[in-house]
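Next up, a chain.

===
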Amino acid sequence: MMKPMNESMLIDFYEFTMANGYFESSYKDHIVYFDLYFRKIPNQGGYAIMAGLESVVEYVKNLRFTDEDIAYLESRGIFSDEFLNFLSDFKFSGDLYAVEEGTVIFANEPIITVRGNVVEAQLLETFLLLAVNHQSLIATKASRIKHAAGKRTVIEMGARRAHGVSSANLGARAAYIGGADKTSNTLSDRLYNIPAAGTMAHSWVQMFENEEEAFRQYAELYPASSVFLIDTYDTLRSGVPNAIKVIKEVLIPKGVDFYAVRIDSGDLAYLARETRRMLDEAGLEKCKIVASNQLDEYLIRALIDQGAPIDVFGVGERLITSKSDPVLGGVYKLTAIEKNGTITPKIKLSDNPEKITTPHFKKLYRIYDKKTGHAHADLITVHDETIDESEPLTIFDPTHTWKTQTFTDYHVKELLVPIFKAGKLVYDLPDIETIRKRSLHELSTMWPEVKRFDYPHKYYVDLSEKLWTVKQDLIKKHRQHTP
């Protein structure tokens, strides 16, 4: 039998060994700063969508270790009594800043910053990464799919192919944030107020003597939400004619003006065109066509380009697993140490340039054009820097420093907002509709070139001159001391 689970223990074991080591080495009270960020946008895309913050907040609020947890750690025989006593009374006492859910985010910029004693900051690593990595990945995939679908409805239908229970539920939530309109997952509706939708499977059609009877029974039971699955036997010879007959004989006499058919196999473009022709010839121009079957943004775009008259897309496994690129790859890195009120920036070097970290306690600004409302670039600064919008703002590429751009008619928005201060939650968690609206609005501020699937425009994430200098000085300092 599975033992009771305390999510607080969802911590990589090395975090416990390091935390205990800080006690043994008299480092336990050191104040540190960690940044969570990701290095590469999934699917070689132009943007990502922030999600997972609500899960982070709930985890941090409830982070406690039970007597059973302490007994387990004690049984390993490597942890000090002082450390175990600390865990017995543990409560997060630090600060946490984050980009709000639904915000468009980019590689190599801090999306969560943690300030606290080194032990508590270290113990947050695994859960923060798993929450943000997974949910931001699915929200991003959903955003791409919705972008491909345009004004057409997208239903997330992937629960049965998800990688576990939480992936199904939180994946549906993330997909809704990213732009999906509904979900097939009833529990996600209960948990997060995401509209659940669904009608019948092929087994319903198979249960009856014939297809017409199956459709007729369903229409009698659920006249206001009848979507007939027409590909159980023969889509065009059987499914469409039987759906037309039942709509005319059952639904229209009841005054129902919403009805649809769903195609779940075959050549979706051809079948949708033929189905549309047959429906229109029967006078059922109002009848919607739903398509499903291993859809993603690329296939949806291809179907639309081929003129497929599809009104609703049901997207399953390729959304809930982000099948085309299933890893966001977020990391959690130490960026500074604070002692007696003085912050000392820290850097991690690497033979791989993309793995060199950006040091210091930082702010993240988004620069918008006042006339168009479009976002031009993001600027990472040291925490004590401010931007005077009345003055021109010049930014430069951190690698190719000769490439500069100056803004005059602009405004900026600070993206990292306080979530916890001194262990107290100071952020009001918004409802799911507010987050979804933020996501759709934020995406509307991005230039179309950034949202392009193939070879998107590179959105610039630059460093302030002060931060760039700090980073370069640290690189030179460490290189000089390396044999």
User: Anything to note?
Assistant: The first helix runs from residue 13 to 24. The mean pLDDT is 96. The CA atoms of residues 78 and 130 lie 27 Å apart.
